[in-house]
Design a protein that fits this description.
There is one protein chain. By secondary structure, the chain is an alpha+beta fold. The protein has helices spanning 12-15, 43-56, 68-78, 145-150, 154-160, 174-181, 183-192, 227-240, 289-293; strands at residues 20-25, 28-33, 58-61, 88-90, 93-101, 125-132, 140-144, 164-167, 196-199, 201-204, 209-212, 219-223, 247-250, 256-261, 265-269, 278-285. The chain has 9 helices and 16 strands. Strand 4 and strand 5 form a beta hairpin. The radius of gyration is 19 Å and the shape is globular. 27% of the residues lie in helices and 29% in strands.
Length: 297
């Protein structure tokens, strides 16, 4: 057993009066019961949903029928709408990105990643609904990067806190994706989004937890140390983050919803269902301005 520190579980009855979080892992990943997302949400419910996201890092709702506008309003509970990534948009609700997989569009996000870590200020999180599911498969895995940090030895924690890493979308599948759209789209992205550097360990200011901030999808290299050492440390961290103790493996039902804190998790979309049909509708949200100006990373 790597981590021998006693765990104090979140006091759910004492903290939540308007929603019912049901943890799926100790202090990580929770079902949310008692909330109808098709109805207007009260301020106390919104506050507890935000608290649940910071407590459990990824939260889930059983299938619900919501409109595109209600999906967008759910994202706004947690922060202002972000510009998102390079995915296609829903024509009648352009704030929503659509990731559609079928025979002609095979699933291609089967790698561990933190969304848009290649920006100087990555988004706070994402709210997705899988509106159409394949006959089997198409699950998503989330890993808690705060748990991954907590389980490291104190010496490794201190060592990592002095390191930084370069993140770039160009090391991911986005380069091929944009290339298919034409040279102009690819060149525009290269000009607009240069590689950025982030600390290897970041503090999530809402939860107070330290988190490992490297991922297989977008982290190019660790800087400031010998390249052989940097390669070895990055390889170790990417492998460490895949420990089952840090992970929840989620099986989707059509209409199911998930919201995650991008600063404390990374995720993997399992690509085991081709050529079947799967539709992911998502909205990404940023850190609220008040929090950002207070110094949130």
């Amino acid at each position: 057993m790597a981590n021998t520190a006693p765990m104090t579980l979140i006091d759910i009855p004492g903290r939540y009066k308007h929603i019912r979080p049901v943890p799926r892992m100790p202090n990580f990943a929770a079902w949310i019961e008692g909330v109808d997302l098709s109805m207007p949400l009260t301020d106390p419910v919104k506050a507890e949903l935000r608290q649940a996201l910071f407590d459990f890092e990824v939260i889930f709702f059983k299938p619900q029928k919501i409109t595109p506008e209600q999906h967008i309003e759910l994202g706004k509970v947690f922060g202002p709408v972000s510009k998102g990534s390079y995915f296609d948009r829903r024509p009648d609700a352009p704030d929503l990105e659509m990731i559609v997989s079928d025979r002609e569009r095979p699933p291609a996000i089967d790698n561990w990643h933190t969304d848009i870590s290649w920006k100087p200020n990555p988004p706070l999180g994402t709210a997705i609904q899988i509106t159409d599911t394949p006959p089997a498969g198409g699950n998503t895995c989330w890993s808690s990067t705060s748990k991954a940090y907590d389980w490291l030895s104190p010496g490794m924690q201190r060592y990592l806190e002095d390191l930084s890493a370069v993140h770039s979308w160009e090391v991911s599948g986005f380069r091929e994706y944009l290339g298919k759209k034409g040279d102009d789209a690819l060149i525009a992205a290269i000009k607009a989004f240069k590689p950025v550097t982030h600390p290897v360990v970041r503090l999530n200011p809402e939860s107070g937890r330290k988190c490992i901030f490297v991922n297989a999808g977008f982290t190019r290299n660790i800087v400031g140390i010998d390249r052989h050492e940097a390669c070895g440390i990055l390889h170790f961290l990417l492998d460490w983050l895949r420990k089952p103790e840090f992970m929840v493996h989620h099986q989707w039902e059509a209409g199911g919803i998930a919201v995650w804190d991008n600063r404390s998790t990374q995720h993997y979309a399992v690509a085991d269902y081709w050529p079947h049909y799967r539709v992911n509708q998502r909205i990404t949200f940023d850190v609220p301005e008040a929090s950002a100006t207070a110094g949130n990373p």
